[in-house]
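We emphasize that the prediction below concerns an isolated chain of 429 residues; any contacts that depend on oligomerization or on bound cofactors are therefore not represented. The input was used exactly as deposited, without trimming of termini.
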Amino acid sequence: MFFQLRWIVIFSVISIMVIIPASLMADRREGNFDKKPVQGISGIDFISEENTPDTLVVYPESENRLTIDQALAQAQPGTIIVLAPGNYYPPDRLQPAVSGLAGNPVIIKAAQVDTAVIHADGNKYGFYLYDKSHIIIDGLIIRGFYSGCGVKVLLSHHITLKNLTVSDSQSHTISVADSHSSIIENCTTSGSRSIGICVAPTNLTPADIHDNIITGNESLENDNSGILIYGDNNLITENFSHHNGTRDPYDHGIYCIGNTNTVTGNTCHDNAFGSGIRLGDRDHIVRNNRCYGNGQSGIIIGGTNDSHDILIEGNELEDNGHSGVQINASDYLPSGIMITGNMMQRNTYHIYIQNGVTGVSITDNIFSDPITWQMEIRMSLNVAVSEISLDQNSFYGPNCMFYVAGQAVPSNIFLGIGQPGATCSGSSY
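Result of the prediction step, given as a token string:
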């Protein structure tokens, strides 16, 4: 009997050992067996009841608890600072003391998205990152600024701002200045007295503001533009920018200046005074965006910058107060503009080209139901009209007039069609 009982006990122990999850075995080997799971922003995060060298849990102001200021002062590369739910009232701007490292960033995040609120009333900034790198700020609500920004990043690189809700600043809600290789992702910015998301130089050149990604954000009800980016080789994609621009026609859904930027898959609508997207400088790709209901045009090119070699492709441009695509000229004369594969409906004009613009190719577009006429081209005598061409476009609706200020409609531009008063519903040229 004794021997039978002994074998039963041994077999039971072996069975228990077999079914212990490998992750728990690893935790035991590392001395972390007492950890408990807490639902975080990205799956399950394991947070000890006590702070560990790589995880610091902070709470709203209370006695004998680690504060967010203390955690930022203690952080080292690889530290994760987790904010418990609640309201935080920091006495001054929040500044990480150190940078992270590639593959070992400093992470500042809410235990659960949108449950930790930073009240920065009276402070110039909510977060201030100067000369930092490899820092992630994730899942916080930041509001109320006396004179500055919700998040200010300056002379930094490889900064990630994601899942933030930032509102009610006197300056830009998020400002990334003189910085490169950073990501702004899935943030909501609103209520700024200036720009929602601003990525631009202050002391450096636009060429130093490069390889930033602005993706999946919503920027709304800001006094100036929803998103402004001034630099080279940046990606602006899948953002929503709407109901911005309460001051003047220089406020747009997205304002993109610099070189070789890509603006794709964005939705810009109901920006009161400006356009959906405004472009300056050269070599931009503007593809598969939807711009509708804006006070000016769906897309504006040029006017304040030397704009060349820009591709406008596959966009939906509807119900804008002025044009589907507007090409401006002032001291700068845009050229090398390709407008192809777009759909334009119910704009006042579908395409509007000012004096001095040359080298515009308009191909494979669908134009329908303009409020006034399909195109207005304001020619001057020094314009080489042969450099503006139309090919394989389709026109629908009763208002298929083309207006060329200063001279008769040149048949070599419109391939013989488009005399004032003409109707061309269902035609292709």
